[in-house]
Amino acid sequence: MQHEDWIKKIHWLGHDCLRLDGSVTVYFDPFRISPGVGADLILITHDHYDHCSPEDVEKIRKKETTIVTDAASARKLEGDVRVVKAGDRLQVKGVEIEVHPSYNTNKTFHPRKAGMLAFVVTLDGVRYYHAGDTDLIPEMEGLTVDVAFLPVSGTYVMTAEEAVQAARRIKPKVAIPMHYAAIVGTEQDALAFRDALRGEMEVVVLTRES
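Request: output the structure for the sequence above.
Response:
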């Protein structure tokens, strides 16, 4: 494994929830998590209950935690909440955040007009892309990232096969599947994604942590 130091800092807490441990602690889309490491920064991609879960946010929110999200999610949350939209760039606690779109192209669960989000976060010199609930979209072209978290379950998001196309378009150094083994999708989706990209790029199927 070429990028062990990066991967050691990434914790998959199920579904689309990931925690990055670095100079600050960053969470994406906390959902059905146990109280754990306090968050310095929480990024929420959209207002669906399995991504914007106020009760899960409260398990990790500290007085000084900053939440970055879309307007619909912000209405459900308390504390230091920054409202953003695709195209925005900001810095929070030394973390560079680029806001990108996330939407469906062949289904209606996440319409483009809803303004749901993906994020590129630069933490300690490493660029992480959390794609949110998305299909394969043109905006993935030209992204420059080290680690890409991509949904693989199908139904509401890309299938594993479509996620393979996304990974080939983005060309991250490490690709990590998400959005399975919770509401829809199984570990087989993650393994199919990994196997299809064998020899092309490093793919890590993380073990879910509690």
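The chain has five helices and 13 strands.
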